Amino acid sequence: MGRIRQTIKVDGQEYWTLFDTGARNTYVIPSVAQILTTSQIRPVRTALGGGVKETNTAALLEAEIQGHPISTHALVIENIGNDEDGKAIEILFGALAMQQWGIRPIPDEERLDLSHYPEEFLEF
């Protein structure tokens, strides 16, 4: 499992983000969601951070990661939790979005590898 922490830009603002291959989905907190396009969905329950959280709101996360634009689906939850240093996580970027955008965490170097970022999508 790989986990990298860094800021990403959303609408020109920086948000503390945990890139976590152990999480399937992507999550944002309400203060991030307020600047995103959101929609109501059927209630979804997820086990995260040692507890079960429920939401009925999804968001379209459009952001910039190291100068690369991304767009992905995110679930809005009240509180993601804190990182190892006690800093509040504002966005949890999950494995599905990392796979979609060719993002690979390199935990030993505490950085992200975006060398596989797709400049175009080839569908079969």
Order of helix and strand elements from N to C terminus: EEEHEEEEHEE
Main sheet characteristics: 7 strands, mixed
E-strand count: 9
- Specify the overall morphology: globular
The N- and C-terminal alpha carbons lie at a distance of 29 Å
Strand content: over 45%
Report strand order across the widest sheet. 1-2-7-3-6-5-4
Chain-averaged pLDDT? 94
Total of helices: 2
Q: Give me the Rg, rounded.
A: 14 Å
Helix percent reads under 10%
Low-confidence stretches: none
The chain-level structural class is: mainly beta
Gist?
This protein is mainly beta and 124 residues long.
Structure overview:
By secondary structure, the chain is mainly β. It has two helices and nine strands. The strands form two sheets. The protein has a seven-stranded mixed β-sheet. A two-stranded antiparallel ribbon has the order 8-9. The relative contact order is 0.26.
Task: Outline the fold blueprint.
Blueprint (H helix, E strand, L loop, with lengths): L2 E8 L2 E8 L6 E2 L1 H4 L3 E12 L2 E15 L2 E9 L14 E3 L1 H6 L3 E3 L4 E3 L11
Parallel strand pairs: 2-7, 3-6
Antiparallel strand pairs: 1-2, 3-7, 4-5, 5-6, 8-9
Task: List its traits.
single chain, 124 residues, mainly beta, 7-stranded mixed beta sheet, two-stranded antiparallel sheet, 2 helices
